[in-house]
Amino acid sequence: MDQASKLHIWTARPKDVELAQWPQLTAWLDAAERLCAAKFRRDDDRRAYILAHALRRLAVATELGMTPASLAFSSETGGKPILTAPADRAIHFSHARSRTLVVCAVTRIGPVGIDAEFIEHNSADMALLRGLVALPDAQQRRAALGSDSTRQFFFYWTLLEAYWKSRESGLSFDNPALHCQPTPQGWFEVSTSQGGAGRHAARSGLAWAKALQGPPDCMIMLAVTPSPAIAARSALRLCYHTPVFQSLFEPVLARQDGSPRNPHPWHRPCAPPSPLSRMQAATSLGA
Predict the structure, then answer these.
(1) pLDDT digits (tens, 9 = 90+) for 197-227
(2) For residues 7 and 238, is the Cβ–Cβ distance under 8 A?
(3) Are 23 and 122 within one domain?
(4) What are the angstrom distances between the C-alpha of 159 and each of 10, 74, 209, 219?
């Protein structure tokens, strides 16, 4: 399968990073990132931020065959992060963090969004979803997502975050409500209401979403908008990765352009890899 049909999912947990490795991870970040990290009052928040931004650099650098510190990122007016050096608009990426888990998605398929949330039972309130998601009735939710109402809430909340990231926007009560329909391939087809309110009222973009396997105390959601060409080929594969921290900082012989001669010394694919998920053109494009 060619690289253009793969979607790479990277995960890491702050507790797996040794104390001596935090300064080395921080050294990958640029001055603006280090300044932002220094502003966090809580150590766990600061470390989650550092690890999330280091993981983003690692994931994108691995895709490009470069070193993490050689990349440069910026943000557009709406806050969307962009890669400025090298300026490769064919690379789509998204990252998210909680205090216990950080995640990053990288692909050439199309715009992507990812979210990860720590599951807190005292913050799960289905009423918060009103107007944001067109919720099915309780029986349909149980059939699709199980009987745990807390996990149902975080499924939809992370869906909202991931979907609007993939649409290069942000979660807002001005957005139209999302409609979410399960598919036989194990994904969810997500679209917006035709009659929404606010500045996003006309948007009805179709995306695909999937709840990813992760720690039992976290919910991870992925949303992606594949190009028609990718969807028509019907093949999309999720490839999972986790950093090997003990080898992250071994010396790497780099070429003058900043790319390492061995571009992948610092990670291994998670095992077992996910099975191939097929998205037929008639399903994904509504043809």
Answers:
(1) 444 444 467 899 999 988 999 999 999 987 6
(2) yes
(3) no
(4) 18, 25, 7, 10
Rounded Cα distance between 221 and 214, Å, is 10
Does 4 lie in the same domain as 53?
A: yes
Task: Judge if 214 and 247 occupy the same domain.
Answer: no
Question: Residue 212 maps to which CATH number?
Answer: 3.90.470
Q: Note down the domain range covering 193.
A: 118-224
Q: In whole angstroms, give the CA distance from residue 26 to residue 33.
A: 9
**Residue type for position 218:** C
The answer to whether the Cα torsion of 251, 257, 261, 264 is positive or negative is positive
**Mean residue pLDDT across the chain:** 80
Indicate the number of domains in the chain: 2
Q: What is the pLDDT of residues 156-166, one digit of tens each?
A: 999 999 999 99
Among 139, 158, 160, 25, residue whose Cα is nearest residue 97: 158
My answer on whether 5 and 28 are in the same domain is yes
Dihedral of the alpha carbons of 224, 164, 34, 9, in degrees to the nearest 10 = -20
What are the pLDDT digits (tens) for 71-116?
999 988 777 889 999 988 789 999 999 999 999 999 998 899 999 9
Same domain? For 28 and 91 the reply is yes
Please report which confidence band the pLDDT of residue 248 belongs to, taking 50, 70 and 90 as the band edges.
low
